C-alpha cells in the first residue's frame, strides 16, 4: 500500500475554529502533550473519550496505535499497512492493505478494545475509503471501475447496505441517523445528506464551486467550500448548514481553511492564513460566534480532531521528516466585554428624544452616562433619554464582567429650537493628501471611518490599479486597504466593517473587503456588474449576465444570491436600506428617454412604482424616506417620497442652480450645487426646511456623503483631487466674565 500519510505531507490548507479571542500568551500557556515517541511518522489521529488512535508509518509499517490518556499506555494494535483510523466508544475501524508494487487488496478492519480482538468488516473498500463510525454504524465509500458510492455496515445486525446510487459519492461522515458526503454527480462536488430513518436524500449545497470534506454533529453540517471565485483553484473557507433552519453560515474568511471537524458547539480546522509555510489549528464556538487560533508555535499542524475540550493533531515541530501526535485541553476562558451601541437620532433639535440600543457582547453589567460627566443615568439595555438643552453631548457606555471593562463614546448634537447659522461650527479637515482620489467616485463614511478609491499608486504602472484607502477619524491614521495588481476600480459603498466595490479583473465584478478579518471575497462572477450598494448583510447590484440588466442581491450571512428583477426593463442607479431596494428604471422608455423610481421589498417580495413623471433619477433611501431628482426642471429639484403615508413632496431650494451628487442621513440631505460658479457642498434639513452652505472654497467640491454630524466629499483643484470632511458642532455658550475687585483692609496681602 502506498504511504497515505506521505501523499498528504504537502502543506494542507488550514482549518479555523473557536470561540475565544486568544492572546499569544493564552495560547502559549496551553499544556501541550506529545503522545508519540522519537522517530515517529504518525498521521490522521482520532479521539473518543480517553482514547486516541493514529497510524504510524515509521519504517513504512503502517501500525495503528491506541493511546490511553489516563494511563499514558501506548498499545500497538495487530495491524500492518493500516491507515485512516476512526474510533467510537470501544470500537476502532481502519483501512488495511495487502500486496506489493501496484497490486494491492484493501479491507475494512474493526477492533474491539475490551477483548483486544480485530475482525474483518468487508473487502469492498479502496485505498482512500476513509471510514467514519457512530455507535454501531460504520460508513465509507468504495470506488470501483470509475464509480464510487457510500456504504454502511451495522455491527449490531452484521448487515451492509448501499446508501448512494449516484456513482460519484465520496468521504462520508455520520451522526445518529444522518450521513453526509461529497457528491460529484453534477461534475462539481457538492454536499448531500441521507436520513436513515426517513430514507430521504437531501442536497445541502448547490454551488458552482467545490464543496468538500463534510462533517456532522447534531443539526449542524460543516464543510470546506470555495466561495472566493477561483473556480479551478480551491481557496476554501469553512461553512455550516443548520438542518433545522436550513441556514448556511460562513464561519471563516481566510480562504485557507480545510479539514473541519465538529463536536457539540465547537468547530476545529487547519488554516494556512499565517505567513509561515505550514498550517495552524483554529477553533470556532457556534454559540459565541467567536474564532481563535489554538496552536501557534510556528510549525505545521494538520489533521485536528476533537472530543469535548480535548484536541489532538499531527505536528511537524520536531522536524527531520518526522510527524508526531500532540494533545491539549483548551481552557475555558471568558471573553472580554466589548462595548457597542447605536443611537437614533444623533442630531436634532431640543428637546431631543434619543433611543439608545446596546449591542455589546460578553458583558454582565452596563452603565450609561448620557453627557459624560462621570455620573451614570441608566443601566437599562435600550434606554431612551431626552436632551432638553442644546449642546454637544458625549455619551459613554461602559460594560463590564467580573474582571474587565470596556467603553464606547458617541457624540450627540442638539440644536436650539430657533437655530441661526452663526450658532453652528463647521470644522473642515483634509482627509487624503495624495492628490489622486479617484475622480468620479464618491467617498463613503460610516461611524468614524472614511473610505475612498485612490489611483496614487498608478504612477509608472502599465495597467491601471486603483486602491481603496481608509481614514480612521479616531486614530487619525490612513490605511491602504487593497493592493490589486491590476484592474480599475469604481462603484464604492461601505457599511459596518464591509466595503464593496467594482474591480475590472477578468471582467467587471463585485468584491467585498471585511475590515474585521482583513479578507477580500469575490461576490459576483459574471463579468458585467454595476453600481453595488450594501446595507447590513445585503449587497445589491445590477448584473448583465444574460445580456439584460437585472438587479441581484447577495446575503453575506447565508452566502445566497437572489435575482430581484425579472422584467425586460433596464435598471439604473440603485440604493438599499434594510429590506428595501430603490432604483431608476427605464422600462417604459425608448433609448433611455423615460425613467422612473421603483422600490422592491425583500421581505414581502413586492415591487412598487414610486414615480410616474418619466424623468426621475438618482434615488437614495434612508429609513422611510426615498429621495431623487427630476429632470423636468433644469435645476433638477429634489423630490421626496414618504413610504409610511405614500406621499410625494418637492423640496424647494430657491437659490439652487443645478443640483447633483445627492445623499441622505436621517432628516439631512447633502448635495452639490453650482450656484456660485463652482461646485459647493450644501446641507438641507428636512425638519427645519433650512439650507446651510458647507464649503466656500473656490475649487470644485463634489459627490458628498453624510453620516451623523460628518460630511465627506471629493475636492478637485489644480493641485489634484483629495477627500475632505466637515464636522458640524454647536457653538458652546460663553461663560460670563467675572468682574473681580478687591479692597485691601489690612497690612497683609494674601
TrEMBL record:
Domain PKD: 360-402
SMART domains: PKD (SM00089)
Annotated SUPFAM superfamilies: PKD domain (SSF49299), Tricorn protease N-terminal domain (SSF69304)
Pfam families, alphabetized: PKD (PF00801)
Domain of life: Archaea
PROSITE patterns: PKD
CDD domains: PKD
UniProt cross-references to InterPro entries, sorted A to Z: 6-blade_b-propeller_TolB-like, Beta_prop_Msarc, Ig-like_fold, PKD/Chitinase_dom, PKD_dom, PKD_dom_sf
Identification of the protein by name: PKD domain-containing protein
Source organism (scientific name): Methanosarcina spelaei
Lineage of origin: Archaea, Methanobacteriati, Methanobacteriota, Stenosarchaea group, Methanomicrobia
Amino acid at each position: 500500500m502506498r504511504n497515505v500519510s506521505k501523499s498528504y505531507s504537502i502543506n494542507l490548507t488550514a482549518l479555523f475554529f473557536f470561540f475565544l479571542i486568544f492572546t499569544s500568551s493564552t495560547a502559549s500557556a496551553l499544556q501541550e502533550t506529545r503522545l508519540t515517541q522519537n522517530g515517529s511518522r504518525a498521521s490522521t489521529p482520532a479521539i473518543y473519550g480517553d482514547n486516541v488512535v493514529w497510524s504510524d508509518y515509521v519504517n513504512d509499517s503502517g501500525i495503528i496505535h491506541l493511546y490511553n490518556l489516563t494511563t499514558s499506555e501506548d498499545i500497538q494494535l495487530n495491524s500492518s499497512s493500516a491507515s485512516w483510523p476512526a474510533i467510537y466508544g470501544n470500537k476502532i475501524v481502519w483501512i488495511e492493505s495487502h500486496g506489493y508494487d501496484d497490486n494491492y487488496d484493501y479491507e475494512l478492519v474493526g477492533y474491539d478494545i475490551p477483548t483486544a480482538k480485530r475482525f474483518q468488516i468487508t473487502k469492498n473498500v479502496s485505498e482512500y475509503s476513509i471510514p467514519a463510525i457512530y455507535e454501531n454504524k460504520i460508513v465509507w465509500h468504495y470506488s470501483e471501475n470509475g464509480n464510487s458510492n457510500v456504504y454502511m455496515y451495522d455491527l449490531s445486525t452484521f448487515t451492509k447496505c448501499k446508501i448512494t446510487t449516484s456513482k460519484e459519492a465520496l468521504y462520508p461522515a455520520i451522526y445518529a441517523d444522518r450521513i453526509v458526503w461529497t457528491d460529484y454527480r453534477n461534475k462539481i462536488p457538492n454536499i448531500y445528506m441521507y436520513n436513515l430513518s426517513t430514507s430521504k436524500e437531501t442536497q445541502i449545497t448547490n454551488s458552482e464551486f467545490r464543496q468538500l470534506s463534510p462533517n456532522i454533529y447534531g443539526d449542524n453540517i460543516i464543510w470546506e467550500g470555495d466561495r472566493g471565485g477561483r473556480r479551478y483553484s480551491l481557496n476554501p473557507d469553512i461553512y455550516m448548514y443548520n438542518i433545522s433552519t436550513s441556514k448556511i453560515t460562513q464561519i471563516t474568511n481566510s480562504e485557507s481553511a480545510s479539514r473541519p471537524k465538529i463536536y457539540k458547539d465547537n468547530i476545529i480546522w487547519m488554516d494556512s492564513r499565517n505567513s509561515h509555510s505550514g498550517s495552524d489549528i483554529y477553533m470556532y464556538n457556534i454559540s459565541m460566534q467567536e474564532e481563535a487560533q489554538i496552536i501557534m508555535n510556528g510549525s505545521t499542524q494538520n489533521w485536528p480532531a476533537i472530543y469535548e475540550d480535548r484536541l489532538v493533531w499531527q505536528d511537524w515541530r520536531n522536524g527531520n521528516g518526522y510527524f508526531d501526535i500532540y494533545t491539549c485541553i483548551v481552557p475555558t476562558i471568558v471573553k472580554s466585554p466589548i462595548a457597542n451601541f447605536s443611537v437614533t437620532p444623533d442630531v436634532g433639535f431640543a428637546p431631543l428624544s434619543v433611543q439608545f440600543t446596546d449591542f455589546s457582547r460578553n458583558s454582565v453589567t452596563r452603565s450609561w452616562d448620557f453627557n459624560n460627566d462621570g455620573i451614570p443615568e441608566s443601566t437599562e439595555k435600550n434606554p431612551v433619554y431626552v436632551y432638553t438643552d442644546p449642546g454637544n453631548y458625549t455619551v459613554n457606555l461602559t460594560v463590564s464582567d467580573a474582571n474587565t471593562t470596556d467603553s464606547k463614546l458617541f457624540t450627540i448634537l442638539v440644536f436650539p429650537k430657533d437655530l441661526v447659522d452663526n450658532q453652528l461650527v463647521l470644522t473642515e479637515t483634509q482627509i487624503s493628501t495624495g492628490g489622486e482620489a479617484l475622480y468620479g467616485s464618491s467617498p463613503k463614511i460610516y461611524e468614524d471611518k472614511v473610505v475612498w478609491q485612490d489611483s496614487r499608486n498608478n504612477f509608472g504602472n502599465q495597467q491601471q490599479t486603483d486602491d481603496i484607502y481608509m481614514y480612521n477619524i479616531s486614530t487619525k491614521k490612513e490605511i491602504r486597504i487593497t493592493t490589486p495588481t491590476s484592474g480599475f476600480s469604481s462603484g464604492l459603498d461601505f457599511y459596518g466593517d464591509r466595503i464593496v466595490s467594482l474591480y475590472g479583473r477578468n471582467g467587471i465584478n463585485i468584491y467585498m473587503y471585511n475590515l474585521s478579518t482583513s479578507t477580500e471575497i469575490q461576490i459576483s462572477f459574471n463579468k458585467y456588474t454595476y453600481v453595488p450598494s450594501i446595507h447590513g448583510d445585503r449587497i445589491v447590484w445590477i448584473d448583465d449576465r444574460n445580456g439584460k440588466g437585472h438587479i441581484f442581491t447577495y446575503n453575506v450571512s447565508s452566502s445566497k444570491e437572489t435575482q430581484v428583477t425579472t422584467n425586460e426593463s433596464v435598471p439604473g442607479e440603485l440604493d438599499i436600506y434594510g429590506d428595501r431596494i430603490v432604483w431608476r428604471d427605464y422600462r417604459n422608455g425608448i433609448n433611455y428617454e423615460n425613467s422612473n423610481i421603483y422600490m422592491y421589498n425583500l421581505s414581502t417580495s413586492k415591487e412598487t412604482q414610486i414615480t410616474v413623471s418619466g424623468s426621475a433619477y438618482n434615488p437614495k433611501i434612508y429609513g422611510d424616506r426615498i429621495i431623487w431628482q427630476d429632470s423636468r426642471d433644469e435645476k433638477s429639484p429634489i423630490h421626496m417620497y414618504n413610504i409610511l403615508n405614500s406621499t410625494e413632496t418637492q423640496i424647494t431650494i430657491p437659490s439652487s442652480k443645478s443640483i447633483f451628487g445627492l445623499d441622505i442621513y436621517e432628516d439631512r440631505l447633502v448635495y452639490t450645487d453650482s450656484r456660485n460658479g463652482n461646485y459647493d457642498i450644501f446641507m438641507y434639513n428636512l425638519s427645519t426646511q433650512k439650507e446651510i452652505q458647507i464649503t466656500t472654497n473656490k475649487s470644485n467640491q463634489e459627490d458628498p456623503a453624510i453620516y451623523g454630524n460628518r460630511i465627506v466629499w471629493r475636492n478637485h483643484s489644480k493641485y489634484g483631487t483629495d477627500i475632505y470632511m466637515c464636522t458640524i458642532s454647536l457653538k458652546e455658550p460663553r461663560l460670563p466674565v467675572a468682574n473681580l475687585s478687591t479692597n485691601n483692609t489690612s497690612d497683609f496681602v494674601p
